[in-house]
């Protein structure tokens, strides 16, 4: 085990003895250790390099250098790819025309990511579930492409933007230091999450607290809002507790409930169908805490540095969910495919919405799923999952539009509907993501064939039988049918919501 983990790790071997003791791959040990170090760095960064004590230039330099050090410790010389990808894309931003810069930048950035993924998968370690160097590149790809679109929006499309695009639009070309700090800062270099450039720049400059919901901050005095800076301590401690529970749960269960056991010949032959369904759900339930741990820890690191403040609740308590990547309870109790996706990998869903769903003129749902598959990697299982996801999304939308109204006649009917849709959603999600876990075509098709492709066929039948309008057509008809005053009120509400970066506005 030790030999294998050493050979597969491209970063530092300083923690090899710990890897051998706890029997985990060295690159995963390095990742967790660096994230814990980043947490300590974040506290130091917030206290000793506070915007009131130093300049944005110093904060940018320190955040970048610390991030590059963590990348070097985890990935060794492979971390050079982070700089190469960032450098190529910045060159495109500088030298390409503003009208086409976002397209060229998108192609170069995503193309370089895919090239690195092909090299890693088919040359080095096909099928390894370890902290590979393309993971951080996926987040950098999100940041670069988002920035390219936002620069174009800010400099060439000022009068054609939606309220949310206006909020995110960048009005000047960032300097090289600002650009590298945004992409490679120590808080997000290893696990993200992605964020908007304007939000990150406001954090560096110390203006993020004044921008968000100050009307609820500690009350008002003499007509002026108190400017006390909220503390992230409670949010960080809460998220670290969530990390501890998630990690303990994952380490306790993932070996007991392996997903690939669902395609074991003896299991399929001897186990009743309903027990196969139960096992699949439990196996996926045991797998999710790994992601809960990684994303919640990343969120806690950003919060500890002072990044992630998102205004105040109605009771005046500060919210630190600006760049949160998931809502665990909403995931586990989701009553629709859309609700599950809305609360899973939230920042990636926002990225897909902003660069693809809102801008694609033809079949944006299919285009969004395709981009998501390409961004995730080159394992065939990813594409099987996202192709299946398109059908699941369309079928779930048709069921909701045609069946749900019959269950809204009373609270008891609504509760029955919620229980049924929760069970269906959990089975549908588990069924859909099996290829994402198994990776290869053979095992994935073996699983689907053992289920006789039943949910694929059911989705096809639902889509063919139940009519459903596209979301854009439905929204257009509803907007056209609104009275003038109501339409203006709706636009004002939408603008306010988008300008506050409401995290519940997601794509499917």
Can you describe what's shown?
The protein has 24 helices and two strands. Helix 3 packs antiparallel against helix 4, helix 6 runs antiparallel to helix 7 (134-156) and helix 14 (273-304) crosses helix 20 (411-438). Helix content is 68%, strand content 1%. It has helices at 2-8, 16-22, 26-48, 56-75, 80-95, 98-124, 134-156, 163-168, 176-184, 197-205, 208-211, 233-253, 265-270, 273-304, 328-332, 337-342, 346-357, 364-376, 380-402, 411-438, 441-450, 454-465, 471-481, 484-499, and strands at residues 220-221, 224-225. It is mainly α and 508 residues long. Strands 1-2 form a two-stranded antiparallel sheet.
List the helices and strands and how they pair.
Elements: H1 2-8, H2 16-22, H3 26-48, H4 56-75, H5 80-95, H6 98-124, H7 134-156, H8 163-168, H9 176-184, H10 197-205, H11 208-211, E1 220-221, E2 224-225, H12 233-253, H13 265-270, H14 273-304, H15 328-332, H16 337-342, H17 346-357, H18 364-376, H19 380-402, H20 411-438, H21 441-450, H22 454-465, H23 471-481, H24 484-499
Antiparallel strand pairs: 1-2
Helix pairs in contact: 3-4, 3-14, 4-9, 5-6, 5-7, 5-9, 6-7, 7-17, 12-14, 14-20, 17-18, 18-19, 19-20, 19-22, 20-21
Outline of the structure:
With 508 residues, this protein is mainly alpha-helical. The protein has 24 helices and 2 strands.
């Amino acid at each position: 085990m030790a030999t294998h983990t050493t050979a597969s790790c491209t970063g530092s071997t300083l923690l090899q003895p710990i890897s051998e003791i706890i029997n985990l791959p060295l690159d995963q040990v390095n990742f967790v250790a660096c994230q814990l170090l980043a947490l300590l760095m974040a506290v130091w960064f917030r206290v000793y390099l506070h915007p009131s004590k130093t300049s944005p230039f110093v904060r940018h330099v320190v955040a970048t250098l610390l991030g590059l050090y963590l990348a070097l410790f985890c990935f060794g010389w492979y971390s050079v790819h982070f700089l190469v990808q960032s450098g190529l894309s910045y060159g495109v931003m500088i030298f390409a025309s503003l009208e086409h810069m976002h397209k060229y930048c998108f192609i170069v950035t995503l193309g370089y990511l895919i090239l690195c993924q092909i090299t890693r998968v088919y040359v080095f370690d096909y099928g390894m579930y370890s902290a590979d160097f393309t993971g951080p590149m996926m987040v950098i790809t999100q940041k670069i492409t988002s920035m390219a679109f936002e620069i174009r929006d800010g400099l060439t499309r000022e009068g054609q933007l939606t309220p949310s695009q206006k909020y995110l639009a960048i009005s000047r070309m960032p300097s090289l230091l600002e650009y590298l700090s945004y992409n490679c800062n120590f808080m997000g270099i290893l696990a993200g999450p992605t964020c908007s450039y304007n939000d990150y720049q406001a954090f560096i400059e110390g203006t993020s607290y004044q921008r968000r919901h100050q009307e609820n901050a500690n009350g008002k005095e003499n007509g002026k809002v108190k400017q006390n800076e909220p503390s992230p301590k409670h949010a960080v401690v809460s998220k670290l507790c969530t990390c501890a529970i998630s990690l303990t749960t994952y380490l306790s269960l993932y070996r007991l409930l392996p997903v690939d056991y669902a395609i074991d010949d003896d299991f399929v032959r001897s186990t009743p169908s309903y027990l196969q369904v139960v096992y699949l759900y439990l196996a996926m339930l045991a797998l999710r805490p790994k992601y809960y741990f990684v994303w919640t820890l990343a969120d806690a690191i950003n919060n500890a540095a002072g990044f992630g403040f998102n205004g105040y609740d109605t009771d005046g308590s500060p919210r630190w969910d600006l760049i949160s990547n998931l809502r665990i309870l909403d995931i586990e109790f989701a009553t629709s495919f859309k609700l599950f996706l809305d609360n899973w990998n939230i920042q990636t869903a926002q990225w897909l919405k902003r660069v693809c769903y809102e801008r694609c003129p033809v079949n944006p749902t299919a285009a969004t799923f395709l981009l998501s598959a390409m961004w995730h990697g080159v394992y065939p299982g990813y594409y099987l999952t996202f192709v299946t996801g398109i059908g699941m999304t369309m079928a779930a939308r048709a069921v909701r539009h045609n069946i749900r109204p019959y269950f809204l006649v009373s609270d008891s009917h609504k509760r029955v509907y919620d229980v049924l849709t929760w069970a269906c959603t959990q089975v549908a999600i588990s069924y859909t993501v099996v290829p994402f876990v198994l990776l290869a075509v053979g095992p994935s098709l073996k699983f689907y064939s053992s289920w006789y492709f039943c949910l694929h066929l059911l989705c096809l039948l639902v889509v063919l039988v139940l009519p459903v309008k596209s979301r854009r057509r439905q929204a257009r008809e509803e907007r056209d049918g609104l009275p003038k005053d109501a339409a203006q009120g709706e636009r004002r509400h939408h603008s306010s919501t988008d300008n506050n970066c409401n995290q519940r506005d997601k794509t499917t």
